[in-house]
Design goal:
121 residues, alpha+beta, HIT family, subunit A, 5-stranded antiparallel beta sheet, 3 helices, globular, binds guanosine-5'-monophosphate, binds zinc ion
């Protein structure tokens, strides 16, 4: 299947992965809206919300909470917006939840590799 996110899961396309288990993978968005912009994806190819199952969704909720704590600790974020696009506005056709950090003070968008360093060290 020609799916970018399946290729990221398989390691065929590199990604700045910050968390991974048997059900999900979490990595930095290549074109972040703010520093620490993460994508949480299921490891099985699920198109969109219509194909999502309760077990995977519940696990994604737990990991979202865990990632929020990580972003608060490592990047001192002041808020977090969750977005999940479906239909025409979904660019990548593999389910993904955006975690977009909010900062009280204006921030310069840093290179993704710099943010990865901050999150993982
Ligand atoms: P959508 O509009 O489908 O909700 O958003 C897709 C997101 O995936 C975009 O924010 C885009 O920057 C991100 N993205 C697309 N291709 C890649 C990739 O190869 N690697 C990473 N890390 N993010 C990607
Ligand atoms: Zn896929």
């Amino acid at each position: 299947m020609d799916c970018i996110f399946c290729k990221i899961i398989e390691g065929e396309i590199p990604s700045y992965t910050v968390y991974e288990d048997e059900i999900v993978k979490v990595f930095l968005d290549v074109n972040p809206d703010s520093n620490g912009h993460l994508l949480i994806i299921p490891k099985k190819h699920i198109l969109d919300i219509n194909e999502m199952d309760a077990n995977t969704w519940t696990h994604m909720l737990e990991i979202t909470k865990k990632m929020r704590k990580l972003l608060e600790t490592k990047l001192q974020i002041d808020g977090l917006t969750l977005i999940q696009n479906n239909g025409m506005i979904q660019e990548v056709k593999h389910f993904h939840l955006h975690l977009k950090p909010f900062y009280r003070d204006p921030q310069t968008i840093l290179p993704v590799e710099d943010i990865y360093e901050k999150i993982t060290h």
